[in-house]
Structure formats: C-alpha cells, structure tokens
Amino acid sequence: MAVAVLELANISKHFGAIQAVSEVSLTLEPGEVVGLMGDNGAGKSTLVKMIAGNFRPSHGTMRMNGVELVLHRPVEARQHGIEIVHQDLALCDNLTAAANVFLGRELRRGLGPLSILDYKAMYRRAGEIFMELKSETRPRDFVKQMSGGQRQAVAIARTMLSEAKIVLMDEPTAAISVRQVAEVLNLIRHLRDSGIAVVLISHRMPDVFAVADRVVVMRRGRKVADKPIAASSPEEITGLITGALERA
C-alpha cells in the first residue's frame, strides 16, 4: 500500500480555553481531492492552517510521506511542497499574471549584482503552465483586468511552479460566475491528474460532489464524517453539517 502524502494523527488545537480542533485524524493520498466541509466555526480553517504551518498543533502529530512533520511557519510548509491558495488569492492587481506567478521567486540572468530580471523566461514558463492548466489566462495580462476564474488560474499556477505535493484551497469558487466555477473545477481536476493532493474547503455542495474523491465533515472542532463521495449524498452531508445527523 502506498504511503499517504499526509497523515494527521489526533491533531488538536486550542486557543486558551477555546478548543478549535479536537482529536482529528486524516490521511491524504497523492492525486486525491478531499472536500472539507462544515459550518462557520467548525474548525476547517484552523485545521488547514496547521497543515500550512500558520499554527502549531497543541497535540497530535503530522506525517508527510511517513516522516514526522513539525512546522513552525508557512515557509517551512512550502519547502515541503505544501501550498495554500487563500480565498482572497493574495495577488497583486497591478502586476501581470507572469509577475504574480514568479512573485518572490523571480528568474534572473547575469551574475551577482549585475543580474537583471529575465522577463522573457518568466513569460515563457508562465505561458507553459497556463497551457498545462488549459487556462485562457495570458502571461502578459494584468491581474486587475482578469475574471475570477483567471485569477484562480494565476494562484494555482504559482503552486505548480513550486512543484507542490499538496494544495490547500479555501473557497475557490465563492463569488464567481457559473462559467468561471467550471473553469476552476477543471483546474482542480488537473492538479489531481498531475498527482497533486488537494484539500478543498467549500460551502458549495455541487462543487465538492463534482471533483472530490472523499468528503470530510467537521462540526464543533471534531471530524464527524470521512467517506468516499460515491458512498454519500448532499442530503447526508447537509445533515452532518447542521447536526441533524450526529455521525456518518
């Protein structure tokens, strides 16, 4: 059996007297999309922030490819191939798509203090990634002129540049049009088909059932369901989220 790319064992997080996440265990396989669902305050974001290195777990262990993983800050998560696409995308509107993809990791040519930014190489590589993603986004276009779907493509292209193993996506289809939702779901499928594991935080049931292999439901900091999408239904997940069903 293949080693899970990520394994959480009894992960908990408290902030003083507030127990945000309690005893959550979870595995994530390469090329798997896991939908993470739950009401506001269920603990989803706190769980994802522990995986992304923003928070240290109060208890429990994380393993990546079978090796214990201890993260003190987000840059360490990125060094291990864990990337997060935030709901606000954290893009610079006044820069081109290519400049956003390479932000902080710009390509240069020349030596030492005489080196200059290699825009041609960055445009070319960004264009190759957008082609891989089958996105209409163009490297030289400015982000401020882009649709929500194109902005998601830029954020996802940034994760592919870093050869991510795990991509954490926070509400990627919120507040965008139906056509753009379809585009973003195709981007998620591409990540999956490339062998990248995806954790998809979403309130949109149709999106989770369209692309996820498994669905995990959290309520009041605890995991109340973890099952294949094919073995569940939107009605069951709604019941679990609201508390009408205790556990699946």
Protein architecture, described:
The protein has 248 residues and is α/β, with parallel strands linked by helices. It has a domain at 6-92 and 163-242: Rossmann fold (3-Layer(aba) Sandwich), CATH 3.40.50. It is 32% helix and 27% strand. The chain contains eight helices and twelve strands. β1 and β2 (18-28) form a beta hairpin. α5 packs parallel to α6.
Taken as a percent bin, the fraction of beta residues is 25-35%
Note the gap between the termini: 25 Å
CATH homolog superfamily of the domain at 6-92 and 163-242: P-loop containing nucleotide triphosphate hydrolases
Low-confidence stretches: none
- Structural class comes to alpha/beta
Shape: globular
CATH topology of the domain at 6-92 and 163-242, which one? Rossmann fold
Query: Major sheet: order of its strands?
Result: 6-9-10-3-11-12
The number of helices is 8
CATH architecture of the domain at 6-92 and 163-242: 3-Layer(aba) Sandwich
Number of strands: 12
Provide the helix percentage.
25-40%
Largest sheet: 6 strands, mixed
Radius of gyration: 19 Å
Q: Averaged pLDDT, please?
A: 93
What series of H and E elements makes up the topology? EEEHEEHEHEEHHEHEHEEH
CATH class of the domain at 6-92 and 163-242: Alpha Beta
Protein name: Ferric hydroxamate ABC transporter, ATP-binding protein FhuC
Organism: Sinorhizobium sojae CCBAU 05684
InterPro entries: AAA+_ATPase, ABC_carbohydrate_import_ATPase, ABC_transporter-like_ATP-bd, ABC_transporter-like_CS, P-loop_NTPase
Family: Belongs to the ABC transporter superfamily.
